[in-house]
Amino acid sequence: MLELYHFEPAANSMKPLLALSEKGVDFVSRQLNLEGRRWEQYSDWFLKINPDGQVPVLVHDGKVITESTVINEYIEDVFPTVPLRPADPYWRARMRIWTKFVDEYLCPALTVIGANFATPFAQKIDKAEMNEILSRIPLDGPRKKWATVSSTGYSEEDVADARRKLKVTVERAEASLAEHEWLAAPTFSLADVNAYSMISGTERVLPDALNAEVSPRVHDWLRRMEERPGVKKAMSYPGRMRPPPPQAA
Amino acid sequence: MLELYHFEPAANSMKPLLALSEKGVDFVSRQLNLEGRRWEQYSDWFLKINPDGQVPVLVHDGKVITESTVINEYIEDVFPTVPLRPADPYWRARMRIWTKFVDEYLCPALTVIGANFATPFAQKIDKAEMNEILSRIPLDGPRKKWATVSSTGYSEEDVADARRKLKVTVERAEASLAEHEWLAAPTFSLADVNAYSMISGTERVLPDALNAEVSPRVHDWLRRMEERPGVKKAMSYPGRMRPPPPQAA
Asked: Which end of chain A is more exposed for a tag (fewer CB within 10 A), N or C?
């Protein structure tokens, strides 16, 4: 029995959705926050599954695996038939340098950028209700984020720094894609899975940062990703985030 | 040919030193910043090896592997005879959750705490010399850190937050060691290697945060670590950092 607790097919939730779809592994989808339900990741029933109050979570025969990047390595360890880690240890290391960079450098930057889009919505929440929600958030990182989002939002300086980090990431990806067909190696890997999951919405939201002129190789890589049956399957789960329409060459 | 570029046996440099020592794998030690040489990680010769200007770096038959956590997974992929990853995928995932937590939560906190110890030394450096050094630091994270360290140092608020994060880490480790003999699993793993590398100096520097009363299981785990031949071997490389003297029971 394999169950995946996830949000819409974007960001961290997209990572295992995409890895499982690429591998053709069947799983039971347990999607949170659907149909107007909010903050379900901090509800009592979910905190019993993951006391950190974070999605995605994989439950495999009763064993709970958290952290999207770790989940994808686990999926690879358990279902290796369609490999998403390069066979060569050197390229495997290159893959892990990318998944680490996405987690430690890109993801916090996108959190700041994305959080500010949520500020107008979060500011409308009743103060007492918001404080009650904040009191249920177990990890200090997300709690701080929602405290900021629901009050002042992130400062212009923070957002500018986040945009700079996105630019650095795009430059790194351009350089990497000049060396080989896929992001971290000559073969498709979890680096593509994880980076695409985080970055695919960016093109629509911040077209200045990522387009055919600024980053032709990243632009082409995004188009190749969109054509993959695994990406199409993962994107078929309900969600607000949709891939941008294919652009004419 | 296996070469490891590293600093003294502490923090990120300790991670691969300890993994290789535990495995009994022979390598050529290329230790930087010895005998009064400083900032060698930003020198032209080293930037040719790692353009990020970061240590440790593993060079295996000419192939360059960076990022200490990735290096240790690579060492495991290439030299699996003495395994440092649990055989069971579930415990392997638990191991990776710990190595990720060390990298993303503990390490930045210890950087703030450790950096402030360096402030009196860094403030004495001639401004022009310091600016020249800063101009050679490729990554914005370390550059920002040294700019802060050499001027004002981190604020009291930043240091208090870093100490709080250290406390959270110690509490997590106590809970984890109540479940099994080693940090992430019933068997010794890269979680122990990486966490010990980061945390072993803390006991001496911040005895309030980590001692036999506050954290008896972590205290006992540190003593068990110190008895390991791999730890003794790794600690035999030159360095300022030395393990605390064994305490009477």
From this structure: C
- Output the domain CATH number for residue A55: 3.40.30.10
Same domain, B102 and B64: no
Instruction: With CA atoms as reference, report the closest residue to A27 among A87, A83, A88, A71.
Output: A71
A74 to chain B, closest Cα gap in Å: 6
Same domain? A106 vs A59: no
For B90-118, b where at least 16 C-beta lie within 10 A, e where not — what string?
bbbbbbbbbbbbbbbbbbebbbbbbbbee
- Among residues A47, A57, A90, A81, which one has the least CA distance to residue A186? A90
Q: Which one, of A114, A117, A119, A72, lies nearest residue A199 by Cα?
A: A114
Q: Which residues contact B235 (CB under 8 A, 6 or more apart)?
A: B9, B242, B243
Give the model's pLDDT for residue B185: 98
Contact residues, chain B to chain A, C-beta under 8 Å = 60, 63, 65-67, 69-71, 73-74, 77-78, 89-90, 92-93, 96-97, 100, 103-104, 140, 168
Complex ipTM tops 0.85: yes
For residues B111 and B185, state if they share a domain.
Answer: yes
- Distance, C-alpha B26 to centroid of its chain: 20
Residues 6+ apart with CB under 8 A from B108: B162, B165
pLDDT in the model for residue B190: 98
**Residue A56: inside a domain, yes or no?**
yes
Closest among B194, B182, B167 to B70, alpha carbons compared: B194
What is the structure's pLDDT at A240? 65
Report how far apart the first and last C-alpha atoms of chain B are (Å, whole number): 44
Return the pLDDT at B247: 44
Please state at what angle helix A216-227 crosses helix A190-199, rounded to 10 degrees. Answer: 100
Supply the range of the domain harboring residue B59: 2-78
Of A70, A104, A140, the CB nearest to B93: A70
Assess contact for B91 and A78: CB atoms under 8 A: no
